[in-house]
Design a protein that fits this description.
single chain, 7-stranded mixed β-sheet, 4-stranded antiparallel β-sheet
Length: about 300
Amino acid sequence: MTLATAEPFKAPQVASLSVRVVVDSFFDQFMPKATHPHVAIEHVSRIRGRETTTLAGEWGLSLHLESKSAGAGGQYLLDFGYTPEILLRNFDLLGIVPERLDGLILSHAHRDHYGGMVGFVEHHRRRMRDDLKLFAGGDSVFREKWLGSRDEEPRSWGALDAAALEAARVETVACEHAHALAGPFTSGRIDRQSFERVLPNTLPGLNLVRFIDDKVGYLAGDGCDQHPSGVFVSTDGGASWTSMNVGLMNSAVNALVRAPGPSGALYAATNGAGVFVFSTELENRAPVKRVGGRRSPRVVRLP
């Protein structure tokens, strides 16, 4: 698909927009009715003909978007909850028709937003349009995410399965800039300024923090969600961080491991450029050598 000659961005205008909550953290069947001067609010309680079952909630979010304008319309699924089981259950109970979906949108690559995607696509793919596309921020959505803190070993939080989506003939479109779809539009990357600073127990982006003692520590970030990317060192317990990225061919670091011992080397795994070995001697903060490499998932980029 060639997108190099796409038209300059112009926000689409619609006559109406319906936002239906498919998955949320909880479901309250007895929630009181609510009104708003500009928005019609409808609450689903018992579903006629399906009285023996109910919608389910879990940590995560999924929204069904439907717009109408001048006789035309568009439908998209925005985010996919934490698990396919809950997404598929609620999608069916709400009577949403997969054949009518014009595309899929992922707001950001946290598991509570992408977790149900692959299972949903595999279940409904034969019923959805042949040229189905996933609109996302970029190939960073396929990077592995990690859980952990300075007091425990990092644990993998998994990653969005690019190979499974490719096998299901779902093309990923990187919307790094604003782009109009059939009804909605993507904002592209939103710059963020914040008064916040990185703390020792924070895992920004990827992220991993390794402390040798109370003062010296190392931080790795993959650049996701506007967070820093690369490898950083702190000598004041995390109050400030200094970059170690000189000579690092790819600053999107997916894993950081330190060899045992007081002078153990640091191994930083990057997204596509291989593994870099760092010395932990403070006077030598550049990578010592590089080993290996891996291929990044293919995405189509919008201009």
